[in-house]
Input
Amino acid sequence: MSVMTTSSISSPPVNLLLKQAKTAVQQGHRQQARRLLQQAVRQNPQDFRGWLWLATVAQSPQASLEYIHRAEMLAPNNGTVEKARRWAEKRLARSQPAEQNSISGSMASRNWLKTGRWLVLTLIALLLLGAGAIAAWQYFQPNETETVAKTAVLNSSIAAASQKDSLAVAVATAVPAEPTATSTQQPYAPAKAVANVGANQPRPTWTVTPTPSPTPTPAPTIVPTFISPNNQQSGRPFGVGAHERWIDVDLSTQTLTAYEGDTAVLTTLISSGTSDHPTVTGQFRIWLEYETQTMDGRLLGYDYYLEDVPYVMYFFEDYALHGTYWHNNFGTPMSHGCVNMTIEDAGWIFNNFATIGTMVNVHN
Output
């Protein structure tokens, strides 16, 4: 099978894309305008107009300010860009009080929920303690009926014994005493000898053997997606079948190769993590996929915010293979740890090759 390589595809010129996006905005089709502008900045990321217009259809004030910042880097003294920045800053300032109120309200409701939960648990604990105390008190209290009956029986026994003693004294006084016969003590016989004497003799008691309790079955161990931490080898990894699909990422050559067994079906350039944010190495399996996703690096302490990142395939924690529209410098490390690919190659792997569980072998 021949190896496929990335090829250029004819696209509309940037000016035509900008004109089509402007028409889509006027007709109220903001999502269509956003896709056209993203295509425009992919074709020419040095044209500040694409970034500036993309700010007008961004889904959040933060994204608008980020796009205007990129346009400002390309055209620092442009009056239109300065007006756009002032507009984006006002938009961001208006949105922040609403966000703060929403956060405060959600925190207050969460605190009330926690307080209510503790109150309910405390009440249940008090009820259980009270019920236990009442049960213990009733258990150790004497039964009045049983006490009266025991007292009556004891009194009757004492009276009967007194009468018997009086009768014995009277008989002893009237009848002369006779010599007492001496009783011979019976010899002691162990339990086995007693059992052989006769049917009328007592026999040893049988003891029931307790049934052993079942041993619990251990729970199965979950197999992680992370397989090997320090893999430095190329070639089909151990455990991958002769016809199984897998992906090899070579950081030293900045290339990605898709294999079926030992046959390469796609080879393309990539951009991995820089020296400050290196891409993790090892053998992994894809565990999560998104056709598009907004990536907010500020949540992890980074300085980027990217909307509608296409064909995202996570293979370890927040490391992913994905398409890239904000640069075209493939073959050079550019990312914060992810593996950047062209949108065409990422789309082919996402739609035609990889699935959840596909092996990803990353090495130097």
Residues 234 and 354 are 19 Å apart (CA to CA).
